[in-house]
Fold this protein.
Amino acid sequence: MFDADRNGGYSIKLKEAIFETRLHRLLRPKRHGGFGLGYGTLAEVARTVAQHMPGAWVTSFMSLHEGWVALLPPAGREEIFATDEFVADIFFPIGKAEIVPGGVRLSRQWNQGSGIDFCGWIGLGGHY
């Protein structure tokens, strides 16, 4: 039985393997310590990992999320990349966004997010 079957998530061993190999940095720009590779390379890496273990989806998600961080305005991008923590997301826009003085307030309740236990950041989807 896999850890994912036992506890509904992926293992610390997989998390550490992704971090040690820096596979989460495939799409991160080089100027931020990443590999600066494209989505085709990400797909090829995911296929290769999938031939050897069932954790390919986690490997690709962690890299994909960093690709989205690269699209943020500079201040947000710099803050997140400076921490070198994994980024999770629940992209489905079930949240409610409202413009408030100084920024945006996001509210509602989101469902469970894959890999969130090992992430220092989370991207949430919402609408206004």
